[in-house]
């Protein structure tokens, strides 16, 4: 069964006034509901333009974008935008509003009752791991960059948008904090199953977060596929070059065990140590190094067995490079 | 000196009141015009250069020359003084109002738009509170410099504290002159202190201090 399509791009083209070239060129793709899709590219690749076309900050030159089957140009712009979460690099928090007021921006606009707003703000602060007792009444300038971005995410999630657009949200944040935020985002998305379109120029970040990656260059899509497929079968030289930077370990940090799962026997399932199917390969490798052993049993969050992953498979992958 | 004060306090009070009146009217009209002009510049950036050029040029005209240009049109008296002050104030006010708005971080406005806030909402709830300290600083400079410039209004019969100064010099009445100096300086200081307080308050608000609403 095909899953629901949240956003569909149909021959989307954008040329800015005065330019001789298209910033986004004939882009057609579907974003499935409930997935994280990252848009990866260098500056000038058109990745941010594609995102800003999606929430109508920019107008299309030609083509169409559909939101759950409806052409977005037919929807009232502000009402449509309130259905999308929007997170940008500098967070863009309102400096004269407290954390709580910032998070409540859209609920206030939608005139939710006061206690419902308060309840939702508290819930969201828990979700992005900010202690309400400490931060509820703080102002943005009293927060670190990472905390500000957590508020930015909470604010975007406030009215339960089905789709969240994120424009290099972790771009200006130090490496350690960025990793924390990435993990928090993955966990959050797994909990609430929203759709996320996430622009980044960081290859690691794009592959780590995504169910599917859009690789863009010069306004065109170079490849749109799962991280594993892109790494194992780059569509062209551009993509090959992009994914060949770094050693195998870099790739292990962004690929999960999902693609290496094999069938496991009943005996193996009974005795084998368990890991989550969301485990990244580097962590699985660490697990092998710690425990010894030949295989680990892979299970889903709610404890369903998906099979096993063997040490040999990981070793092969490391030796031969990631290929099919 | 004290004797002069005792004998003329009612005149001096009246002149101070005239001075305040001229200043307030001039700044009020100047602000209304400058705000509209600044908003136009903010919306149509290409206007910035020509508007600044014109304001600079007007500001460069000496006060007495400006009076003589205007007297044939608006006559002797307070009208001419106020029109002159309104024109000079464009120099300070358009620039400070314009930069107060352009100084707002683009990311703040972009996220407001991206969240689906209406233009009027963004203006009222985001842009204005954040621009307010800059606007207040402009008003402060404008009021203080207008108090100073308005002393010249006495030369064309518009009254105000300038009367004490010019009469004092003409009749070598040093007591009168001194009172003119003291009163106009006090007025400027008082205005500056009060408006600084207002500016500080708006600055605190815009930077995020104090307590939130929810």
Folded structure, characterized:
The complex is a heterodimer of chains A (324) and B (214). Helix content of chain A is 39%, strand content 23%. Chain A contains 15 helices and 13 strands. Chain A has helices at 47-54, 77-82, 99-103, 105-109, 114-127, 132-135, 145-157, 175-192, 203-209, 227-232, 237-244, 248-252, 266-271, 281-291, 311-320, and strands spanning 5-14, 24-32, 36-40, 62-67, 70-71, 84-87, 163-167, 195-200, 212-217, 220-225, 274-276, 295-299, 305-310. In chain A, helix 5 packs across helix 7 (145-157). The radius of gyration of chain A is 21 Å and the shape is globular. The two termini of chain A are 25 Å apart. The model of chain A has no long low-confidence stretch (mean pLDDT 89). Chain B has a single domain (2-207), classed as MetI-like (MetI-like fold), CATH 1.10.3720.10. Chain B is built from eight helices and no strands. With 214 residues, chain B is mainly α. Classes of the chains: A alpha/beta (324), B mainly alpha (214). Chains A and B meet through helix 2, strand 6, helix 4, helix 5 and helix 7 of A and helix 5, helix 6 and helix 8 of B.
Q: How is the topology of this model organized?
A:
The complex is a heterodimer of chains A (324) and B (214).
Chain A lengths: L4 E10 L9 E9 L3 E5 L6 H8 L7 E6 L2 E2 L5 H6 L1 E4 L11 H5 L1 H5 L4 H14 L4 H4 L9 H13 L5 E5 L7 H18 L2 E6 L2 H7 L2 E6 L2 E6 L1 H6 L4 H8 L3 H5 L13 H6 L2 E3 L4 H11 L3 E5 L5 E6 H10 L4
Parallel strand pairs in A: 3-8, 3-9, 6-7, 7-8, 11-12
Antiparallel strand pairs in A: 1-2, 1-4, 4-5, 9-10, 12-13
Helix pairs in contact in A: 5-7
Chain B lengths: L1 H42 L4 H13 L2 H12 L3 H25 L3 H9 L4 H31 L12 H9 L3 H34 L7
């Amino acid at each position: 069964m095909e899953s629901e399509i949240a956003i569909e791009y149909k021959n989307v083209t954008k040329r800015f006034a005065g330019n001789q070239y298209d910033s986004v060129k004939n882009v057609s793709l579907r974003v499935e509901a409930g997935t994280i899709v990252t848009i990866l590219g260098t500056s000038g690749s058109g990745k941010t333009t594609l995102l800003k076309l999606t929430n109508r900050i920019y107008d299309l030159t030609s083509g169409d974008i559909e939101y759950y089957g409806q052409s977005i140009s037919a929807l009232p712009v502000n009402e449509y935008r309130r259905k999308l979460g929007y997170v940008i690099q500098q967070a863009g928090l309102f400096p004269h509003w407290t954390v709580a007021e910032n998070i409540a921006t859209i609920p206030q606009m939608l005139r939710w009752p006061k206690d419902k707003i308060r309840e939702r703000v508290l819930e969201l602060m828990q979700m992005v791991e900010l202690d309400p007792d400490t931060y509820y009444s703080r102002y943005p300038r009293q927060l670190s960059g990472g905390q500000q971005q957590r508020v930015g995410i909470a604010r975007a999630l406030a009215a339960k948008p089905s789709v969240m657009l994120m424009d290099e949200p972790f771009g200006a944040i130090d490496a350690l904090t960025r990793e924390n935020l990435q993990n928090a985002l993955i966990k959050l998305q797994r909990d609430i199953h929203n759709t996320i379109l996430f622009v980044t120029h960081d290859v690691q970040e794009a592959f780590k977060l995504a169910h599917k990656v859009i690789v863009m260059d010069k306004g065109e899509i170079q490849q749109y596929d799962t991280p594993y497929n892109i790494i194992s079968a780059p569509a062209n030289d551009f993509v090959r070059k992009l994914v060949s930077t770094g050693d195998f370990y870099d790739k292990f940090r962004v690929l999960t065990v999902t693609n290496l799962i094999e069938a496991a026997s009943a005996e193996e399932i009974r005795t084998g140590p368990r890991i989550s199917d969301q485990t990244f390969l580097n962590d699985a490798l660490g697990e092998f190094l710690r425990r010894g052993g030949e295989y680990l049993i892979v299970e889903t969050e709610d404890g369903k067995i998906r099979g096993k992953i063997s040490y040999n498979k990981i070793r092969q992958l490391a030796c031969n490079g990631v290929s099919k | 000196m004290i004797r002069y004060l005792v004998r003329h306090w009612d005149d001096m009070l009246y002149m101070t009141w005239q001075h305040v009146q001229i200043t307030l009217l001039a700044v009020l009209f100047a602000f209304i015009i400058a705000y509209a002009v600044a908003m136009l510049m903010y919306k149509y950036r290409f206007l910035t250069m020509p508007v600044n050029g014109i304001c600079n040029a007007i500001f460069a005209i000496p006060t007495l020359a400006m009076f003589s240009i205007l007297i044939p049109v608006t006559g002797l008296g307070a009208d001419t003084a106020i029109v002159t002050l309104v024109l000079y104030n464009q120099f300070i006010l358009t620039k400070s109002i314009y930069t107060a708005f352009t100084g707002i971080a683009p990311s703040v406005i972009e996220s407001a738009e991206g969240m689906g806030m209406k233009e009027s909402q963004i203006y009222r709830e985001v842009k204005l509170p954040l621009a307010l300290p800059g606007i207040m600083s402009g008003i402060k400079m404008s009021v203080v410099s207008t108090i100073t410039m308005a002393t010249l209004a006495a030369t064309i019969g518009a009254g105000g504290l300038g009367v004490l100064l010019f009469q004092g010099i003409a009749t070598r009445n040093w007591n009168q002159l001194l009172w003119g100096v003291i009163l106009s300086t006090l007025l400027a200081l008082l205005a500056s202190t009060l408006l600084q307080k207002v500016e500080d308050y708006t600055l605190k608000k815009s930077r995020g201090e104090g307590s939130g609403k929810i």
